[in-house]
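Subject: Sanity check before I submit

Could someone independently write out the structure tokens for this chain? I want to compare against mine line by line before I put it in a report. The sequence has 91 residues.
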Amino acid sequence: MNSASAATTTIEPVVLPNDQDASGRTLGEREIELVAVRTADVRPGPTLDLPAGEPLRATGPTVLELDGATCWVPPGWVGARDGPTLVLTKP
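---
Independent answer below. Compare away.
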């Protein structure tokens, strides 16, 4: 659908537990106007074949100088390379 076209759809009514005012009275049915809806077309991306980096393990606090990036490992965190991915965990 392009920006020049419009679509109509029905939204089923939903009653939420929070549909009460401050005194606990149910607010009842009321109309709403839906002004805009954002949609997305989600598709799988291409498969990436990333080269595995050198084995790496770091304990924070430290700064890791990586190829094309810098990574801060906070105090109490551990960084370990899992194939091509650097995984940070807080044990």
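---
OP: Matches mine. For the report I'm noting this point. The chain has no helices and five strands.
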